[in-house]
Amino acid sequence: MTPLARFSALVEQRLGLHFEKEQWRELELLLTDRSAKTGVEGYLTLLNSPSAQSEWKAIAERLTVNETYFLRHPTQLEALVTQVLPSFSRQTPHLRVLCAGCSTGEEPYSVALLSRERGLVDPARLRVLGIDVNSRVLSHARRACYSPWSLRAVPEGSRDRWFQRTPEGFVLRPHLRDQVTFEERNLLQEAPAFWAPGSFHAILFRNVVIYFPPEVTRKIVARMARSLVPGGYLFLGPSETLRGISDEFELLRTGDAFYYRLKTPASAAVPAPIGLPATPSQMDLPAVAPPPPPPPEGLDGVLQSLEAERYEEAWARLDAMPGASQPQGQLLRAVLHLNAGRFAEAERAGRQLLSMGATEASAHFLLGVCLEQSGDDAGARDRYAAAARADPTFALSHLRSGTLARRAGDVAEARVALRMAVSLLPHEKPLMLTLFGGGFGRHGLMQVGLRELQACMEVP
Ligand SMILES: C[S@@+](CC[C@H](N)C(=O)[O-])C[C@H]1O[C@@H](n2cnc3c(N)ncnc32)[C@H](O)[C@@H]1O
């Protein structure tokens, strides 16, 4: 085995993160960087030793993907705070929610925030715990200070109610912050005390398993199942599934939100058909709404599924779509990869689109998002600028250019781009908003643009 293959295997064994061969360049750069003092062989030996803990921390900080934002996948969060949590007996003193892979904290804080807004659970009863393997993101979570981009899905009224605007950013108000705690924890570690039976009423494990191979996910989900109260709930990301991973849960659906409930002995006897709403049984179950009508065929169907964040359905519709290999199909494929956080695949598809000489503005934009995710803001700005050159009316490219320019301190350039974005957004094509709006409508994006512009104006 080459040193790089050994490094990749160690990363998978220790952190669960699986890297395809095409993604090994990232590992190679990291290996070269970290082994500068010890040499590659010495470094690989060190990683196997018990004293390598701080080194693994550094690796986790470099390799984990931490994309998140407040009120992400809102229909699931609504189901959690309006149906799932209130369904537990009022005699239960504490409702414990775990966010596994909580990144910079937006997800656990969103649970606390939305629960207070809906008012169906006494805040004193709700305890939210966020865990993550990356200590850097946890420090951010504990600081609870966020950029406007992180709050892009939070309506203005809620933003004013729950955050204090400071020169550093939007700081979460203390009473909300106090409901949430954070712990550094690697999901691959057994930790029987942490995963003790009955520890949690609901677990959010969203947008994490996409980076794990199935056998790793299987082990973690089995541990989670043991740690839930009887009939407890598990939420995965909309593009993730327990199919082939666990049969200890049944699938529930409320409107567009899918989630799982641990089977009770009674419900296990009559398994709910996969993919269909499960039947509420004898417990205090959440009401399960009837399934929405099927989306239309072809491109419109894919877009409708995408807009509703039903990614699995979008993939299925895309595969069935005539002309799926044409540029438009390829573009949709790239956007679906992007939404699932598979940036290497999205980048590949974006480059392919460019080589097809079609949908140039979209392809550049897509590549810009991938670069931004990898922390290369300068490269991303170049891509957004190229997108704007290819289609000067593409509002979102001006919006991202402006945001990045402001972040880099180029206030004059940021103002020009953001003014352009704000003037073009009312006319932006609905297709572009669906593909690249990150789940936000015209109004939400307009708010982001105006806030960014206002922030530029505040700089002398
Ligand atoms: C894309 S973020 C998801 C954030 C949030 N759950 C959401 O849906 O917005 C994935 C998070 O999983 C964390 N993660 C990855 N591998 C992990 C592991 N082995 N143990 C704990 N956390 C892990 C990463 O550090 C990252 O912050």
The gross shape turns out to be globular
CATH topology of the largest domain: Rossmann fold
Radius of gyration: 22 Å
Mean pLDDT, as a whole number? 87
Helix content bin:
40-55%
Structural class designation: alpha/beta
- The assigned CATH architecture of the largest domain is 3-Layer(aba) Sandwich
Termini separation = 57 Å
Main sheet: which strands, in order across? 6-2-1-7-8-10-9
Q: CATH superfamily of the largest domain, please?
A: Vaccinia Virus protein VP39
Number of strands: 10
Number of helices: 21
| Number of domains as seen in the coordinates | 3
Keywords: Methyltransferase, S-adenosyl-L-methionine, Transferase
Protein name: Chemotaxis protein CheR
GO molecular function: S-adenosylmethionine-dependent methyltransferase activity
Pfam family, one: CheR
Short characterization:
This protein folds into three domains: 60 residues, no CATH class; 196 residues, Vaccinia Virus protein VP39 (Rossmann fold, 3-Layer(aba) Sandwich); 133 residues, Tetratricopeptide repeat domain (Serine Threonine Protein Phosphatase 5, Tetratricopeptide repeat, Alpha Horseshoe). By secondary structure, it is α/β, with parallel strands linked by helices.
Explain the overall architecture:
50% of the residues lie in helices and 12% in strands. The chain has 21 helices and ten strands. It has three domains: 3-62, no CATH class; 74-269, 3-Layer(aba) Sandwich (Rossmann fold), CATH 3.40.50; 325-457, Tetratricopeptide repeat domain (Serine Threonine Protein Phosphatase 5, Tetratricopeptide repeat), CATH 1.25.40. It is an alpha/beta fold and 460 residues long. Helix 13 runs antiparallel to helix 14 (327-339), helix 14 packs antiparallel against helix 15 (343-356) and helix 17 runs antiparallel to helix 18 (395-407). Helix 10 links the parallel strand 7 and strand 8 (228-236). It has helices at residues 3-15, 24-34, 40-47, 53-63, 74-84, 106-118, 135-143, 156-162, 174-177, 214-227, 265-269, 298-307, 311-320, 327-339, 343-356, 360-373, 377-390, 395-407, 411-424, 430-436, 442-457; strands spanning 95-100, 126-132, 145-146, 163-166, 169-172, 180-184, 200-205, 228-236, 249-254, 257-262. The chain is globular, with a radius of gyration of 22 Å. The structure holds S-adenosylmethionine. One of its GO terms (biological process) is methylation. This is Chemotaxis protein CheR. Residues 1-265 form the CheR-type methyltransferase domain.
